[in-house]
Amino acid sequence: DVVKLDFRACFLSLGPQILKRLALKLQHAAATGQAMDELISRPNHGAKKITALSIIFGKKPCSDDLRPLGQDGRVLRWVASAALPDVFNAAVADSRRSPDATCGSRLLEGAEDWCTETLINFIMNQLGDKVQHLAWEYDGVGINESALTGMTTFLTDAEDDIFKRTGYRMRIAMKKERSL
């Protein structure tokens, strides 16, 4: 059997951490990513994840309580556009409707990939020959369940290693894959 080690609310977790690491001195409190932090700390945040990601990437918030999330997203897209001018210019040349959203996505994907690569290295260093299946998936990895037998602190150790190597605090959830 295969289990998935999934980064919980990956983009919503990375967004505020990127803004905080840049230590931006902006007037809006939203520049801290506080709205993203608050969203992922709520119970059942997963049900609102698609709406939240849409707002972060430029959709107009449908209610006043989501407006700070829109401000966080705007700052993140602005920072990403400034950090990735070649990506922005290519998106403009492609007539993309939201070149800043393209940049925001690319920035978050790069941080996600770095965290995933670090997780894979940790798995191989810790489990070695126990690994019979390892697949890089959208926001985590798939691994044979037997490799994790008896590894009670594996997930927290992996989270700590990712933080130590990347500076990003990611939470990992273990999910059982099901198929017909």
Instruction: Give the overall shape, derived from the CA principal axes.
Output: elongated
Summing up helix and strand content along with how strands pair, one would put the structural category as: alpha+beta
- Quickly count the helices: 7
Order of helices and strands: EHHHHHHEEHE
Mean pLDDT: 84
Rg from alpha-carbon coordinates? 18 Å
- Count the beta strands: 4
* Unreliable spans: 27-31
End-to-end gap: 13 Å
Described by strand count, sense and barrel closure, the largest sheet is: 4 strands, antiparallel
Portion of residues within helices:
40-55%
Give the DSSP E fraction (strand runs of 2 or more residues).
5-15%
What does this structure look like?
With 180 residues, the chain is an alpha+beta fold. β2 and β3 (140-144) form a beta hairpin. α1 (10-22) crosses α4 (67-83), α1 (10-22) crosses α6 and α6 (99-127) packs across α7. A four-stranded antiparallel sheet has the order 2-3-1-4, covered by helices on one side. It has helices at 10-22, 34-41, 49-56, 67-83, 85-93, 99-127, 154-166, and strands at residues 2-7, 134-137, 140-144, 172-176. The two termini are 13 Å apart.
